[in-house]
């Protein structure tokens, strides 16, 4: 059974004119200047685009003011932002697209412009849509995965040059990816499968995991992965049937199921039953049961789902329901510089912005 928070959360819903495939907070320039990045799709004109908006917070009605927009050659499937350590006003943006490429942009937040930098050639990169990407911490490499079973590393210093890390020739499909360290990353795919890769060791993944919690009745998919900067040995994954689990590389055959349906030993406090589209560690929610920074206890995580739930899941605790909508919540993002603020995209062409007390 889901619980609500004791203190009220300010929730504002702001209608948009296009479908929102993904959204991300951009770096703060000042206390009063905040920006949002949207990957949108106009179904009337079949036009995908990237947009930046200025966010003006207010206790009554916050406003979103369009700042810049640029068309994309294909619908965006994954969106990542890497703040530049030298010019924070010009963050780097990576956008994976349905036609099989990754596009790189820079956002000039002071002058209010979006600038296309370069792209990876579609030929030889992925056969079909790029299903997942992630930028490493220093913005020097982008890892990409696809349903075609290819894993690629894009060197940003080479302006779109890439090398093939692995090609399953269609025997394995990947749906998500996340960096764990400058040389390690994790991929997720069908069958609740996770692969741990180490660039220092070629030839394939160094550790594999495949869950089987539905008794063979359904094939689960990992839709989203997150890894906490201070606990890079643990991978958090969300996917089909409301499943959330943690995989510790130190105990690769003993995952911890935090939420889900369809298994005999699934916790009774599952928050959702449908697909979990995105998962992120929630730095705002501090567990009172974690006093030791080296504790093996899984840190709280936020999820959004197909059945319209935005909530927080914590190991051994009742889940917290932040928002329940009659439509899917496709994407969300926690503001890194102010983690009390969360925004999510609703399937009914609107954005919800939540401010937690």
Automatic annotation (TrEMBL):
It is found in: Nucleus. Keywords: Nucleus, Repeat, WD repeat. InterPro entries: WD40/YVTN_repeat-like_dom_sf, WD40_repeat_dom_sf, WD40_rpt. Its main location: nucleus. Gene3D superfamilies: YVTN repeat-like/Quinoprotein amine dehydrogenase. Transmembrane segments: none annotated. GO terms for cellular component: nuclear pore outer ring. This is Nuclear pore complex protein NUP43. It comes from Buddleja alternifolia. The lineage of its organism: Eukaryota, Viridiplantae, Streptophyta, Embryophyta, Tracheophyta.
